[in-house]
Amino acid sequence: MLAGEYAVLFEPGRCVAVAVGEVASARWSAGPTPTLTLDAYDTVRSWPLSAIPSDQLMGFIGAALAAVGHGRLPPGALHVRVNGQLGGRKFGLGSSAATTIAVLRATLIARGKATPPAQIMALAHKIHHAQQGGRGSGYDVATIAHGGCVAYERASATVHQLPWPDGVFGAALYTGTPSSTVAALRRGIDGATLGIAAIAAASDGLLAAWHGGVASQILAALATCEAAFDTLAADHPWMAPKSLQLTRTHIRRHGGVARTSGAGGGDCVLAWTDDRDRRDAIVAAWPDVCVARLPEDLAAVEAP
Fold first, then answer.
1. Fewer CB within 10 A of the end CB, N or C, for the chain?
2. Is the same domain home to 181 and 291?
3. DSSP per-residue string spanning 162-177
């Protein structure tokens, strides 16, 4: 999520988002034994396709298989790998949405069905929405289904792919603190009218700057988006724990623009610059800072 967090839940629900590489992959292999093998969070486990657990990622996988109709698949096994984690902790880069779409694509291909991104998006959104208890905007499945950078509008379920602007370089830095989007949505943001309005306006500003294609204006718009997030977080301190604040400080000290990803509370912070070498320096220096400074700080923010 580049812009539009929380505001995407309110009409008309616009946001700007970007896909970040291979977070999950799935493949269907022909064979006599119908099994699911899941390689995720530093653990490899297998189940019969008829007895997949319904908790966590397995719930999304099972729902995707049910939607495709695993009884109509040719004999074989499903192998799913999730890369969006470190030390058993998720990054918060859409691993459940990516897993859902990967399974849908792999099994639909196995059935000989070529399914366009819009149909994959609609099917994945239905599954993901149900698994999240009817919460969420669907921007993540829309972005992953189409790939690249997109402008998404929830009210009309429309996706417009955006060209990547010259001279804009980004990276995702893991804060060390996992954050649950479902838990964040359950906390609620009642009475946050001003914060939501600021985020919506900043999101529209970023989209306009993106269309303009001028790197300096895009970076300024991203900084405005972060300021709008801070307006909302001022009344909801859990959105910006110490680990997230440390990550943002690191990015800014190296001359980058920090952009909190998604619902906040941890996961990743996006670093943006107009210089590739500066971006690489921010990334290269972060592991040492994270190891040296985060452990004692995390104790205070992990308990909730």
1. C
2. yes
3. EPPPTT-EEEEEE-S-
For residues 118 and 294, the answer to whether their CB atoms sit within 8 Å is no
Boundaries of domain holding 29: 24-147
Mean pLDDT, 10 residues at a time, the chain of 304 residues: 92 92 91 90 88 88 90 90 71 86 95 90 91 81 95 93 96 85 68 82 97 98 97 89 92 96 88 97 88 48 30
CATH number of the CATH domain containing 236: 3.30.70.890
pTM, 2 dp: 0.86
Fill in the DSSP letter of residue 28: E
Q: Are 133 and 205 part of one and the same domain? A: no
Residues 6+ apart with CB under 8 A from 35: 46, 47, 48, 49, 77, 78
Contact 250, 259 (CB under 8 A): no
Decide: 117 and 101 in contact? Cβ < 8 Å.
no
Looking at 114, 147, 180, which one is the last position of a domain? 147
With beta carbons less than 8 A apart as the criterion, state whether 141 and 101 touch: yes
Alpha-carbon span 267 to 261, nearest angstrom: 8
Residues 179 and 296 in one domain: yes
Cα-to-chain-centroid distance, residue 261: 8
Contact call for residues 15 and 139 (beta carbons, < 8 A): yes
| Neighbouring residues of 211: CB distance < 8 A, sequence distance ≥ 6 | 162
